Amino acid sequence: MSAEEKTYAVAFKPRAVKDISKLERTEQERIIDKIQKMRKGLRGDVRKLTAWTPEYRLRVGDYRILFEIENENIIIYRVVNRRDAYKTRR
């Protein structure tokens, strides 16, 4: 089974939940929608990062969802504005 065909489970770290809760309702809905779409084969604007932990990012407008993949699980660490996304680590 290729990566495009896999369906992933999604888990949120407490910090990611806190990040999302601070956003406006429309942004929250947009981000959750993109995460749901990403579950099937990593759809969306997903890139593997080279020098960062977590290893991947999903771009949603001005926000970046920073996550890792462990087996069949997407673990979301942070949801941050793009200007701050690469300054923080977890």
Provide a descriptive summary of the structure in words.
With 90 residues, the chain is an alpha+beta fold. It is globular, with a radius of gyration of 12 Å. A hairpin with a 7-residue loop joins β2 and β3. It is built from 3 helices and 5 strands, in the order βααββββα.
Distance between termini? Answer: 30 Å
Low-confidence stretches: none
| Beta-strand fraction estimate | 25-35%
Backbone shape:
globular
**Rounded Rg:** 12 Å
Mean pLDDT across all amino acids? 89
Q: Can you list the strand order of the major beta sheet? A: 1-5-4-3-2
* Estimated helix fraction: 25-40%
Keywords:
alpha+beta, 5 strands, globular
A few lines on this structure:
This protein is an alpha+beta fold. The protein is 29% helix and 32% strand.
